[in-house]
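[Meeting: bench + compute handoff]

Bench side (C.D.) handed over the final construct sequence. Compute side (W.E.) agreed to return the predicted structure before the next meeting so the bench team could plan truncations. Sequence as handed over:
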Amino acid sequence: MTSATAAALFAGAVSFILLGGAFAFQYLGGLAPCEMCIWQRWPHGVAIAAGLIGGALVWSDILPAGWARAFALLAIAGLVVSGAIGVFHAGVEWKFWPGPSECTGIGYVPGQDEFKPLQIVRCDEAQWRLFGLSLAGYNAIFSFAAAAIAVLMLRNKIGRPE
Protein backbone atom coordinates (compact mmCIF):
# COMPACT_ATOMS: atom_id res chain seq x y z
CA MET A 1 0.00 0.00 0.00
CA THR A 2 1.38 3.41 -0.92
CA SER A 3 1.54 6.30 1.53
CA ALA A 4 -1.07 8.14 -0.55
CA THR A 5 -3.49 5.21 -0.35
CA ALA A 6 -2.91 4.92 3.40
CA ALA A 7 -3.50 8.67 3.85
CA ALA A 8 -6.73 8.51 1.83
CA LEU A 9 -8.03 5.54 3.79
CA PHE A 10 -7.06 7.14 7.12
CA ALA A 11 -8.75 10.49 6.31
CA GLY A 12 -11.88 8.72 5.07
CA ALA A 13 -12.01 6.47 8.14
CA VAL A 14 -11.71 9.41 10.55
CA SER A 15 -14.51 11.24 8.72
CA PHE A 16 -16.61 8.07 8.87
CA ILE A 17 -16.08 7.89 12.65
CA LEU A 18 -16.81 11.60 13.17
CA LEU A 19 -19.96 11.49 11.04
CA GLY A 20 -21.05 8.31 12.82
CA GLY A 21 -20.54 10.09 16.13
CA ALA A 22 -22.69 12.99 14.96
CA PHE A 23 -25.48 10.59 13.97
CA ALA A 24 -25.15 8.76 17.31
CA PHE A 25 -25.55 12.02 19.22
CA GLN A 26 -28.58 12.80 17.05
CA TYR A 27 -30.39 9.45 17.00
CA LEU A 28 -29.22 7.86 20.24
CA GLY A 29 -28.59 10.99 22.32
CA GLY A 30 -31.58 12.99 21.10
CA LEU A 31 -29.58 16.10 20.09
CA ALA A 32 -31.22 17.59 17.01
CA PRO A 33 -28.67 19.19 14.66
CA CYS A 34 -28.82 22.87 13.80
CA GLU A 35 -28.19 24.24 10.32
CA MET A 36 -24.45 24.63 10.89
CA CYS A 37 -24.21 21.09 12.29
CA ILE A 38 -25.57 19.85 8.98
CA TRP A 39 -23.04 22.01 7.09
CA GLN A 40 -20.21 20.21 8.93
CA ARG A 41 -21.50 16.81 7.82
CA TRP A 42 -21.29 17.37 4.05
CA PRO A 43 -17.48 17.70 3.86
CA HIS A 44 -17.19 14.52 5.93
CA GLY A 45 -19.32 12.80 3.29
CA VAL A 46 -16.89 13.98 0.62
CA ALA A 47 -13.94 12.72 2.68
CA ILE A 48 -15.62 9.35 3.16
CA ALA A 49 -16.33 8.97 -0.56
CA ALA A 50 -12.85 10.07 -1.64
CA GLY A 51 -10.89 8.51 1.21
CA LEU A 52 -12.61 5.24 1.96
CA ILE A 53 -14.21 4.43 -1.38
CA GLY A 54 -11.53 5.96 -3.61
CA GLY A 55 -8.71 4.63 -1.44
CA ALA A 56 -10.26 1.14 -1.40
CA LEU A 57 -10.62 1.17 -5.20
CA VAL A 58 -6.94 2.06 -5.57
CA TRP A 59 -5.87 -0.43 -2.91
CA SER A 60 -7.77 -3.23 -4.67
CA ASP A 61 -6.18 -2.28 -8.03
CA ILE A 62 -9.54 -1.36 -9.59
CA LEU A 63 -8.21 2.18 -10.14
CA PRO A 64 -4.62 3.08 -10.98
CA ALA A 65 -2.25 3.87 -8.09
CA GLY A 66 -1.74 7.38 -9.47
CA TRP A 67 -5.23 8.33 -8.33
CA ALA A 68 -4.45 7.72 -4.66
CA ARG A 69 -2.85 11.13 -4.14
CA ALA A 70 -5.89 12.95 -5.57
CA PHE A 71 -8.23 10.91 -3.36
CA ALA A 72 -6.07 11.61 -0.31
CA LEU A 73 -5.96 15.35 -1.02
CA LEU A 74 -9.74 15.47 -1.52
CA ALA A 75 -10.34 13.56 1.72
CA ILE A 76 -7.93 15.86 3.58
CA ALA A 77 -9.71 18.88 2.11
CA GLY A 78 -13.03 17.50 3.39
CA LEU A 79 -11.60 17.23 6.89
CA VAL A 80 -10.18 20.76 6.75
CA VAL A 81 -13.44 22.28 5.46
CA SER A 82 -15.50 20.51 8.14
CA GLY A 83 -13.01 21.66 10.77
CA ALA A 84 -13.19 25.24 9.54
CA ILE A 85 -16.98 25.20 9.69
CA GLY A 86 -16.66 23.75 13.20
CA VAL A 87 -14.45 26.66 14.26
CA PHE A 88 -16.97 29.14 12.85
CA HIS A 89 -19.83 27.31 14.55
CA ALA A 90 -18.01 27.22 17.90
CA GLY A 91 -17.37 30.96 17.55
CA VAL A 92 -21.09 31.52 17.01
CA GLU A 93 -21.83 29.47 20.13
CA TRP A 94 -19.35 31.54 22.16
CA LYS A 95 -20.90 34.75 20.70
CA PHE A 96 -17.61 35.81 19.05
CA TRP A 97 -19.55 36.59 15.84
CA PRO A 98 -23.14 36.31 14.64
CA GLY A 99 -24.45 33.16 13.05
CA PRO A 100 -26.72 32.77 10.05
CA SER A 101 -30.32 33.90 10.45
CA GLU A 102 -31.56 30.36 9.65
CA CYS A 103 -30.35 29.30 13.10
CA THR A 104 -32.44 31.60 15.28
CA GLY A 105 -36.07 32.08 16.21
CA ILE A 106 -39.21 30.17 15.37
CA GLY A 107 -40.35 29.28 11.88
CA TYR A 108 -43.72 28.11 10.60
CA VAL A 109 -44.71 25.14 8.47
CA PRO A 110 -48.03 25.32 6.67
CA GLY A 111 -50.54 22.86 8.12
CA GLN A 112 -53.73 21.61 6.55
CA ASP A 113 -55.90 24.27 8.16
CA GLU A 114 -53.44 26.50 9.96
CA PHE A 115 -49.74 27.24 10.37
CA LYS A 116 -48.11 25.04 12.96
CA PRO A 117 -45.05 26.39 14.77
CA LEU A 118 -41.74 24.60 14.29
CA GLN A 119 -38.95 25.23 16.75
CA ILE A 120 -35.67 25.77 14.94
CA VAL A 121 -32.55 24.41 16.63
CA ARG A 122 -30.38 27.42 17.39
CA CYS A 123 -26.78 27.50 16.18
CA ASP A 124 -25.73 29.95 18.88
CA GLU A 125 -26.63 27.69 21.81
CA ALA A 126 -24.58 24.53 22.35
CA GLN A 127 -26.82 21.62 23.30
CA TRP A 128 -23.94 19.65 24.82
CA ARG A 129 -20.50 20.47 26.20
CA LEU A 130 -17.64 18.49 27.68
CA PHE A 131 -14.75 20.39 29.33
CA GLY A 132 -16.26 23.60 27.91
CA LEU A 133 -16.20 22.45 24.27
CA SER A 134 -19.26 21.73 22.16
CA LEU A 135 -19.56 19.10 19.45
CA ALA A 136 -18.58 21.76 16.90
CA GLY A 137 -15.38 22.43 18.83
CA TYR A 138 -14.54 18.73 19.04
CA ASN A 139 -15.27 18.30 15.34
CA ALA A 140 -12.81 21.10 14.58
CA ILE A 141 -10.08 19.63 16.79
CA PHE A 142 -10.42 16.06 15.53
CA SER A 143 -10.84 17.11 11.89
CA PHE A 144 -7.75 19.35 11.89
CA ALA A 145 -5.67 16.78 13.79
CA ALA A 146 -6.65 13.99 11.39
CA ALA A 147 -5.94 16.23 8.39
CA ALA A 148 -2.47 17.00 9.78
CA ILE A 149 -1.75 13.30 10.36
CA ALA A 150 -2.99 12.44 6.86
CA VAL A 151 -0.71 15.11 5.36
CA LEU A 152 2.24 13.61 7.24
CA MET A 153 1.26 10.18 5.96
CA LEU A 154 0.98 11.54 2.44
CA ARG A 155 4.44 13.09 2.72
CA ASN A 156 5.70 9.72 4.01
CA LYS A 157 6.74 11.23 7.35
CA ILE A 158 4.75 8.80 9.54
CA GLY A 159 3.16 5.41 9.06
CA ARG A 160 5.57 4.35 6.34
CA PRO A 161 3.82 1.46 4.61
CA GLU A 162 5.85 -1.64 3.85
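W.E. noted at the follow-up: The first strand starts at residue 106 and ends at 110. C.D. will use this when planning the next construct.
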